[in-house]
């Protein structure tokens, strides 16, 4: 029988909540179709359980977040509802018994256990829905591409920046799928080529995590740490087409300065365009969003701007997402033995060339023959 005790920490934005979680907490979220990156962040915090007021798997498309929690053996309930979410306070001591949740003697609600059987069934449903979702996604992309074509036709006003892109390599880092592994894989490239480092929102924290200071941060500034904002050499806030830029409030509260760019699409689109328009020789990208599942997990129903931007910058773009999976060195035990023997051959040859050593080997051989008699 499942029985879990722990303090609750809740938040409607999982990516912000994870910064407050510590090992042993019960994460209370409201996250429809839990995505893989959010689940990995929860796993990294070593939470005891995840309780989702929303549905972690609706079956609309194959989202891999619940499977990540299951693989980490983290107990997971969903569909608790908005009323439950409002009842729970931060640091409330919760008790989870099977599918029920209590605060002391007070019963708070009952949810759906997200186990291996449920995940398998919902993934089957999602696969069946994928064709319909793809049709809708493509149509949405085409419709919005007509409205956002200024991104590719060059009518977008881009500010001059202090960051010098001319004839340089640029590495754009987004905190997306496999960003840690891919950053690790390109460390030699960063250290040798020394590209301009651009962090898209939380991508700036990813760079800091690996010991690099972002030259430029682009984003709406909702998923980046204060530390990264203060350390970055230049900031660009992605604003809405009507000029509103909520991220500027945070910039001003930290007594920092930033430039704004009014544009449709995503912040990573803007990062690519800035590098391209100001003369980057090559643009490498890590953790970017480039397929239907990526965009559905971000709550977007199409990818018009990204489609257009990649058409424009494609001749200079190298998408390094997943580069860590291209080659994984595997040295077998047999290979290690052969390498050891090969390394020992020069040492043996040098030893045998020494008269004293040859004499010792001769005495050992004589001793062995005597023992054999």
From TrEMBL:
Protein's UniProt keywords contain Magnesium: no
Entries under Pfam families matching the protein: SteA-like_C, TPK_catalytic
GO molecular function: ATP binding; kinase activity; thiamine diphosphokinase activity
Gene Ontology BP terms: thiamine diphosphate biosynthetic process
InterPro entries noted in UniProt: Put_SteA-like, SteA-like_C, TPK_catalytic, TPK_catalytic_sf
SUPFAM superfamilies found in the cross-reference section: Thiamin pyrophosphokinase, catalytic domain
Domain SteA-like C-terminal stretches: 321-370
Domain Thiamin pyrophosphokinase catalytic, chain residue ranges per copy: 195-236
Protein origin, superkingdom: Bacteria
Keywords, ordered alphabetically: ATP-binding, Kinase, Membrane, Nucleotide-binding, Transferase, Transmembrane, Transmembrane helix
Spans through the membrane: 336-353
NCBIfam families the UniProt entry points to: division_SteA
Protein name (Swiss-Prot/TrEMBL): Thiamin pyrophosphokinase catalytic region
Source organism: Dethiobacter alkaliphilus AHT 1
């Amino acid at each position: 029988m499942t029985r879990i005790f722990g303090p609750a920490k809740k938040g409607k934005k999982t990516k912000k909540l994870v910064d407050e979680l510590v090992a042993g907490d019960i994460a209370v979220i409201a996250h429809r179709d839990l995505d893989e990156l959010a689940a990995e962040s929860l796993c990294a915090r070593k939470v005891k359980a995840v309780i989702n007021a929303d549905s972690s798997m609706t079956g609309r498309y194959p989202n891999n977040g619940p499977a990540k929690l299951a693989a980490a053996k983290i107990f997971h309930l969903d569909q608790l509802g908005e009323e439950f979410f409002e009842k729970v306070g931060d640091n409330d001591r919760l008790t989870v018994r099977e599918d029920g949740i209590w605060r002391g003697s007070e019963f708070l609600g009952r949810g759906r256990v997200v186990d291996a059987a449920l995940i398998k069934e919902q993934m089957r449903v999602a696969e069946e829905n994928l064709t319909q979702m793809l049709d809708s996604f493509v149509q949405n992309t085409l419709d919005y591409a007509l409205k956002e074509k200024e991104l590719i036709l060059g009518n977008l006003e881009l500010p001059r920046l202090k960051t010098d892109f001319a004839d340089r390599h640029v590495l754009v880092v987004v905190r997306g799928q496999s960003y840690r592994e891919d950053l690790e894989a390109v460390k030699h490239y960063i250290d040798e080529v020394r590209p301009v480092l651009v962090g898209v929102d939380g991508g700036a924290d990813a760079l800091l995590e690996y010991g690099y200071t972002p030259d430029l941060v682009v984003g709406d500034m909702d998923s980046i740490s204060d530390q990264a904002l203060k350390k970055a050499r230049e900031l660009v806030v992605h604003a809405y087409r009507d000029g509103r830029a909520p991220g500027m409030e945070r910039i001003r509260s930290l007594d920092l300065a930033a430039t704004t760019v009014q544009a449709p699409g995503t912040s990573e689109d803007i990062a690519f365009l800035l590098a391209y328009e100001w003369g980057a020789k090559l643009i490498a990208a890590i953790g970017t969003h480039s397929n239907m599942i990526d965009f559905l997990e971000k709550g977007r129903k199409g990818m018009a701007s990204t489609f257009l931007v990649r058409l424009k910058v494609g001749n200079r773009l190298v998408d390094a997402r997943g580069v860590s999976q291209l080659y994984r060195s595997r040295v077998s035990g047999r290979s290690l033995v052969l390498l050891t023997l090969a390394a020992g051959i020069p040492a043996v040859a040098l030893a045998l060339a020494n008269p004293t050593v040859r004499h010792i080997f001769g005495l050992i051989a004589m001793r062995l023959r005597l023992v054999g008699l």
